[in-house]
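Blinded run. Sample ID left blank on purpose so nobody reads anything into the name before looking at the predicted structure. Input follows.
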Amino acid sequence: MMNEYIKIDKIKNVWGINPVTGDYSYDEDGRHYLSIDGVVLEKKELPTRIVSVGEYVYARTCNGSLEIYSGHTLLKVFEKNYDLLERDLDTYIRYHGRTPETFELRENIIFVSDGRRLLEQDVPYRVYEVEGMVFGYELFKTEFCRIDLSGEVLWCFPLRRIDDEGRDKGTAHLDKVLGIANGMIWISTDWGRLIALNVETGELMYQFIPADVAEDKIVFMDEENSVYRLIGGVGVFFFRETDKTLLSISNWGIHILDAATADLIESYSFAKVDPQGIATFEHVMNPRLQDDHFVFMGERTHEFGGCGWAGVFDLQARKLLWADEVIPAEEREKTGNQLVVSRPIYYAGDKVYVIDAEDTLHIYERK
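Blinded prediction complete.
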């Protein structure tokens, strides 16, 4: 039986939401506001991303400034050209700028405590930090590289699309830097590829390639070469630091792999474990892992007018925890309003936050 949540509020013109605290940013009469710690602050620049980092709250504005709050007190501001990293936010943030002469993009990683640069020089890569190591992605060359603290490149791995018969189909693009286990850095690319590289040498250790094979098992492309592996039912990949596992979430269901060995731990289809719940959605879109749950946007079979459903799936119980048609079908068809990928859904235990395409925040609370 699903948990019952009721819609308790709708707030218009919302741009950012912190699901941990309930803080949010919004526009009203052409002015920008941040509602934080029970206090409404008028802001010159609109915060578009708000996250909790320990006892602090970080708010990134639309012009690239980063503000750090304790309660509603502003402690520190990094002016323009700063962004949040995917991990270790209590230690690092990302700086990005352009050289005056060539206008070439350059990035670095900055210590939050004192503004020092982690790398001795800014580098022409999109930078990522994992366990104190720095990696970079070069968009035009589609190379994934490791960078030492002097800013020099240690190795690069070209991202290529390989089909299920081993043929090179051209360049691929980086989707996510997932995590490190057993001396391997795991990344995912567009078109659903999962890659493990030796962190010291850049050697390819494993590559999982989506294919039309049984979803509940992994097939070696070549029995004499275990590097290339075929996998069916693949979706969006996530890395769980707590147990060093990789999760794939798709319309079909869940894969869980051991990131240290690349072995398949288990797979299950939604149709088998929750036929009356999440399996009633034809499309499970934009999943986002949140501890032992994932949130998603959903479309029922034969529905039209865009996506209007949001849901929360419990990975431990293997059941749909909650789902609601946030934007009813009649409203979607009449106004064009719907749920969109650029507006993530957030689950916070007793509350669920959903922002629609018209920037309206829908707040649900457990009954």
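Unblinding after everyone has recorded impressions. The two ends are 14 Å apart (CA to CA).
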